[in-house]
């Protein structure tokens, strides 16, 4: 008669079973070997296709314990045939910035790195369009109220490999004061980028506001006040900005010169050490 030895391994030392999770479209997982994080858009025999926040696709094999879901190791399996979640290709939902939404994602603990923008309006616009992405990445946005003291601010922040600093500057055009100040920041762990608009208001597409275009304001006049006068808007720039911001629903309402720069800063601040 065959004898069996009892398993005397303490319960706390036994490996925990890895759960199997259906690769439902829209499920956000990470492939740990590459660090690629994205939403499931397709699951076929033996493979799963993920799409990251920038629309890039990667195909991975459905291997045991091959993915991370909310930080836990899981085994992805094909959804049951005939289930509503087993469709061959479904695009995941998107955030206002156009990136893949992460359902139920919790805000990450804030990174040491930061993104600085010039003023309150810049910060509010970035929050409205990229807020979901920033919370997932743990990136805090602060505003400077101008950049005249930017070199001193960067020196005080002391950016490093684990605390990168990204700065978004209005009207960053060669020959301007802003351009000269930006060039004085030389830290390899700080990145200064900018858009060509005098104020972040101009980065909102005129069509989204129902106007033919942003008026040209003579040099020496307060730009925002001049815009309000030219367009027949109340000269309460705070109230006008709130109305402008309310018309911004997603990245589609913003000019590409701003979109690219903000995405560049997010990439820089969140890049691996």
TrEMBL record:
Q: Which InterPro entries does UniProt cross-reference here? A: DUF3097_C (IPR021447), DUF3097_N (IPR053883)
- The signal peptide stretch is none
Region (Disordered) location = 1-26, 78-102
Listed transmembrane segments: none
**A Pfam family this chain is assigned to:** DUF3097_C
Record domain DUF3097: where? 20-79, 114-270
Under what name is this protein listed?
DUF3097 domain-containing protein
Organism equals Streptomyces lacrimifluminis
